[in-house]
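Why should sequence recovery work at all? Because a backbone constrains its sequence more than one might expect. Tight turns favour small or flexible residues, buried strands favour hydrophobic ones, and helices have their own preferences. The token representation captures these environments compactly. In the example below, the structure is given first.
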């Protein structure tokens, strides 16, 4: 029965799969960090200014965001094992190619290739979780894999800086590329598709709803997702969470230095505190969501409620950070804001698998992530413009708080339907009135 729990053997296989996707996400984020770590040395090598370095980051982000759309469709057709393994090899080659680039243009092309091929990684975690876990048990694994987005940025600076200082920025890029190819080999060797495993009758019963899902999604069925209000609410909500996430990830050190007058020497350490809090927010959000359902709360509500509460509290603490002139209180408020931000965002990823048919989870997650990166693309530019115009972060943080509140409102008042598989297939088959 669907309510039957997994055996110790299946549980071990489940968490090996989640550990692998978490490690892939952490590696993904470390590869992105090479540009930031090598910033000054790269400028010296090619004789370019800060704007040109910024353009490299923007080219990566834009390509990554656009590539989200086909990534989910491909994941739902061929599965994480093949797609993530292959793209990990290719993105690692692009990463290494950046290290041997002979010109700025070649480095730009390498970053564009990196963005396009890294795109399937995060949505693959949603697909892996929905493949290996019953829908009622996806909170804790989702909390773990979303924490990978903070594991990578936390461990990247000391490792990458050490490589660059010991050798140079080119070696740093190449070493990360080689590490990625090795990681891809381990991925192919260890990762398993649950549909191809021989399981006990009890484990077969546990995974039966997942195994019963169709094995591939047609292009017409993928496009039919956009006829559902729930898909658009997920995407608009993700735009809001993407805005607040990248506002902090891009501007936190500058906020501490400019607004709170904290020295550069202390900024690096203090900026890591909110990242650590976000890591624990991811784990806590996933755990609480499962706990609520285990103690009687309806499944979708157990995913929506922590999401909404997390975004509301993140907005409150972001607003408090905007108003305070005390540096200690500001760091405390931002740490709390990022804890609750990731607490909620983790539940956003779990919600996708609760309201979307099994066969379409990766497609819906990729569409959501695409919208999140649109918000993440707007946020750094908008924040910088507001700071330039006002000379402070007060209004910029207030805007971030308001957008986070809008995200909470979207999930509270408009997320009242699901994506029904039978209806979706009718949409794909021919003209049918939308919801």
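From this structural description, the recovered sequence reads:
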């Amino acid at each position: 029965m669907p309510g039957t729990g997994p055996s110790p053997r299946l549980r071990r296989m489940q968490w090996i799969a989640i550990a692998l996707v978490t490690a892939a996400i952490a590696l993904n984020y470390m590869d992105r960090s090479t540009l930031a770590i090598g910033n000054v040395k790269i400028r010296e090598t090619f004789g370019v200014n800060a704007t040109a370095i910024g353009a490299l980051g923007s080219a990566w982000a834009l390509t990554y965001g656009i590539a989200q759309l086909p990534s989910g469709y491909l994941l739902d057709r061929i599965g994480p094992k093949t797609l993530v393994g292959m793209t990990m090899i290719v993105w690692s080659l692009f990463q290494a190619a950046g290290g041997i680039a002979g010109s700025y243009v070649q480095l730009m092309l390498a970053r564009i290739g990196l963005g396009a091929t890294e795109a399937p990684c995060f949505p693959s975690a949603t697909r892996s979780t929905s493949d290996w876990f019953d829908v009622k048990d996806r909170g804790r694994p989702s909390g773990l894999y979303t924490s990978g987005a903070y594991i990578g940025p936390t461990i990247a600076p000391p490792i990458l800086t050490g490589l660059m200082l010991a050798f140079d920025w080119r070696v740093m890029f190449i070493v990360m590329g080689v590490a990625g190819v090795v990681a891809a080999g381990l991925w192919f060797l260890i990762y398993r598709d649950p549909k191809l495993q021989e399981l006990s009758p009890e484990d077969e019963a546990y995974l039966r709803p997942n195994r019963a899902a169709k094995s591939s999604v047609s292009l017409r069925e993928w496009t039919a997702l956009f006829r559902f209000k729930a898909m658009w609410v997920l995407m608009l909500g993700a735009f809001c969470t993407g805005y607040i996430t990248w506002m902090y990830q891009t501007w936190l050190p500058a906020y501490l230095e400019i607004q709170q007058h904290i020295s550069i020497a202390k900024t690096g350490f203090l900026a890591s505190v909110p990242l650590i809090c976000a890591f624990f927010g991811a784990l806590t959000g996933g755990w609480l969501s499962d706990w609520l359902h285990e103690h009687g709360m309806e499944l979708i509500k157990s995913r929506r409620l922590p999401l909404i509460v997390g975004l509301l509290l993140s907005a409150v603490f972001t607003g408090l950070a905007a108003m305070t002139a005390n540096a200690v209180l500001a760091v405390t408020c931002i740490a709390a804001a990022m804890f609750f931000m990731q607490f909620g965002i983790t539940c956003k990823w779990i919600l996708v698998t609760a309201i979307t048919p099994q066969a379409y989870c990766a497609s819906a997650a990729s569409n959501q992530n695409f919208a999140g990166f649109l918000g993440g693309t707007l946020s750094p530019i908008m924040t910088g413009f507001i700071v330039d115009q006002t000379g402070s972060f007060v209004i910029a943080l207030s805007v971030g708080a308001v957008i986070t509140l809008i995200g909470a409102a979207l999930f509270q008042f408009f997320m009242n339907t699901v994506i029904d598989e039978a209806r979706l297939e009718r949409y794909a088959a021919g003209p049918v009135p939308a919801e």
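A few observations help interpret the result. The domain at 217-435 is CATH 1.20.1250.20 (Growth Hormone; Chain: A;).
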